[in-house]
Design brief:
The chain has one domain (7-398): Ammonium transporter AmtB like domains (Ammonium transporter fold, Orthogonal Bundle). It is 67% helix and 1% strand. The model has no long low-confidence stretch (mean pLDDT 96). The chain has helices at 7-34, 40-67, 99-117, 127-150, 154-157, 166-184, 200-219, 227-253, 259-273, 282-305, 314-332, 348-379, 386-391, 393-398, and strands spanning 70-71, 75-76. It is mainly alpha-helical and 404 residues long.
Length: 404
């Protein structure tokens, strides 16, 4: 007997889907403000392109590979190819909402993950090569991870927790960005002269859109208009605020209190709470966000100190923030929010499972992405010519200027 579709839950997931969609142009604005003025059109355009690529891939076969019938805990089958058999009936994995809106909700997650990855190629990627790499990455990195964690794959079978994407979205994009940055190399002149953000207010507006959209990201992952969604929304905001404050303080100790650092800390707090949002209370969220702000700031300083040009810090913020959040879920999970407990409540097993799942996600995302990037670079060439890079990607790749 088919259960009744709940209109309130469906409405909330519809709204959450639209909110998460707004995060992709939010990433574009955030990254666009961080690069130089000659590549801002390119940077924002890459986020929109990521949304288009992920949208087409997802409805053709991405959703099926992620959420289709389980094959040995590794990947989904092609039973949902081109959304065959997906209609307005109840979603198999999502309670009492229509299957189609569950597909759309998961689609916008895949899209924003791909947009985050563009950090690694800022100001130097060949557009055609990015399209090929993006399609390969979404299919061979994102889709398997989504299946492992959210659709009955091997991580889910061993009890790993990831409420809204700490491993699937943030570890995958952050450590994949690190791999791509190693392959594509530094921007011309990196380290020889300062490459300052051309528009910090633009970056801060992008961060504000991300903070707003994250309420749909995390609270929407409750898949219903219920008390779990309310708790997830509040802990999301609490962690973001804590991250913003601790990054601000950390940057203040080294000189001036950075406004850009403050919003970066907010994003770090949002990233870190993502896997834990359905399992921790506000005290846990305060600790998770506060540590994330300092940890991700230190990761940024480490990246700069090593001379690595991972341009917009997807690794430092999303990769390291997601890694901390996945482990922190196994520390702070409390039965007062959900049925799971973590290390501080005596459950060492959950803590160990989280470490194993996070470690496996790091290794898989980094290694597979490194191989894919090397293949695309060898076959097509990942980066533009020196002349095209000097002129700027806005002109050389798009024939457009951001500012007349």
């Amino acid at each position: 007997m088919q259960l009744e579709i709940n209109s309130g839950d469906t409405a909330w997931v519809l709204v959450s889907t639209a909110m998460v969609m707004l995060m992709t142009p939010g990433v574009g604005l955030f990254y666009g403000g961080l690069v130089r003025s000659k590549t801002v059109v390119s940077m924002i355009g890459l986020s929109f392109l990521a949304f288009a690529i992920a949208s087409i891939q997802w409805v053709l076969f991405g959703y099926s590979l992620s959420f289709g019938s389980d094959i040995s805990g590794i990947i989904g089958g092609l039973n949902y190819f081109a959304l065959s058999g997906v209609g307005l009936e109840q979603a198999p994995l999502a309670g009492n909402i229509p299957h189609l809106i569950y597909v759309a909700f998961q689609l916008v997650f895949a899209a924003v993950t791909l947009a985050i990855l563009t950090s690694a190629v800022a100001e130097r990627v060949r557009l055609s090569s990015f399209i090929v790499l993006a399609l390969l990455w979404t299919t061979l990195v994102y889709d398997p991870l989504a299946h492992w964690v959210w659709a009955g794959g091997w991580m889910a079978q061993m009890g790993a927790l990831d409420f809204a994407g700490g491993t699937v979205v943030h570890i995958s994009s952050g450590f994949s960005a690190l791999a791509i940055a190693l392959v594509i190399g530094k921007r011309m002149g990196y380290g020889s002269y300062i490459m300052e953000p051309h528009n910090i207010p633009m970056a801060m507006i992008g961060a504000g859109l991300l903070w707003f959209g994250w309420f749909g990201f995390n609270a929407g992952s409750a898949l219903g208009a219920n008390s779990l969604a309310a708790s997830a929304l509040l802990v999301t905001n609490t962690s973001a605020a804590a991250g913003a404050f601790t990054w601000l303080l950390a940057s203040w100790l080294k000189g001036k209190p950075s406004a850009l650092g403050m919003v970066s800390g907010g994003i770090a707090g949002l990233v870190a709470i993502t896997p834990a949002a359905g399992y921790v209370d506000v005290t846990g969220a305060l600790a998770i966000g506060a540590i994330a702000g300092v940890l991700c700031y230190m990761a940024l300083l480490f990246r700069v100190g090593r001379g690595l040009d991972e341009s917009c810090d997807a690794w430092a913020v999303h990769g390291m923030g997601g890694l901390w959040g996945a482990v922190a879920t196994g520390i702070f999970a409390t039965a007062s929010v959900n049925s799971y407990t973590g290390l501080i409540y005596g459950n060492f097993n959950q803590f160990a499972v989280q470490i194993m799942a996070a470690g496996a996600s790091v290794v898989y995302a980094f290694v597979v992405t490194l191989v894919l990037a090397k293949i695309v670079d060898r076959v097509m060439g990942l980066r533009v010519t020196e002349e095209e890079e000097y002129v700027g990607l806005d002109i050389s790749q798009h024939g457009e200027k951001a500012y007349a």
